[in-house]
UniProtKB/TrEMBL annotation:
It comes from Pollutimonas bauzanensis. Pfam families: T2SSF. GO terms for cellular component: plasma membrane. The chain crosses the membrane at residues 6-25, 77-95, 222-241, 253-273. This is Tight adherence protein B.
Amino acid sequence: MVIVLALSIAVLAGVSSWFLQQSASRAYERYRNAFKKEATARMGEFFLFLDPAQLWLANLALCGLAAALVYIASGPLWLAAAAGALALLAPQYSIKQLRRRRLRRFDEQLPDLLQALAGALRAGSGAQGALRHIVAQSPIPLAQEFGLMLREQRMGVPFEQALAALYLRMPTEGTGLVVSALQIAAQTGGGLAETLERIAATLRARLHLLGRVRALTAQGRMQAWVMACLPLVLGVVLAQLDPDSMRVLWQTPAGWTVMALIAGLELLGVFFIRRIVDIQV
């Protein structure tokens, strides 16, 4: 009877391990394919054409290095696994932050381009010729995006389709206004210079208001980061001052439960603070 029970437990453990391995393998493949697809699309937006397979290997190397360093420095295996998981997710978060910054810089540069384009139109220049001359002297990322649009047009892509592709790459409110104005002007004509000047004035007023909002909410954003980092700093300091007492927190199931609860509450607090200070204009 004991032998049968032991064999049953062994078979159950083997089957469970096989299913767990298969699930982990499928999850790994899904995440790797999603990472490569996302990296290819996002790197293309930054005009960086890198091999997604090499980026994936670099991400895995970063994950392993972070886990090894944390394990050597602290000792708990679960903490090293958490550090490796964070390192695995960090590149996607960084890419999203860089894309958000790129969109913001594009919006900041857009009013100057519109003002220069309106001046060129009032001087008698054509819209596409003036746009080509202005884009050649514009900073990045505006020069890259409008330059790609003009190259697509020279290769035979219709002007309206090239504008629509520009809006897909840079889906901001300012880009939508500019694309709509240029499409209408290309189809019907009319006072494009005056329209562009009004759009430029509207975008400048909006950017000024966004700057004021960011300045007024800077303290709230800093409060979120201070609240998130303070327990970590305090834990490191207490571990150096009284390692025997802190060992209960690092090396016992009760301590792990407390840390998981603290991490959950910290993330919840940061989420709510950032939602409060994220004012849409």
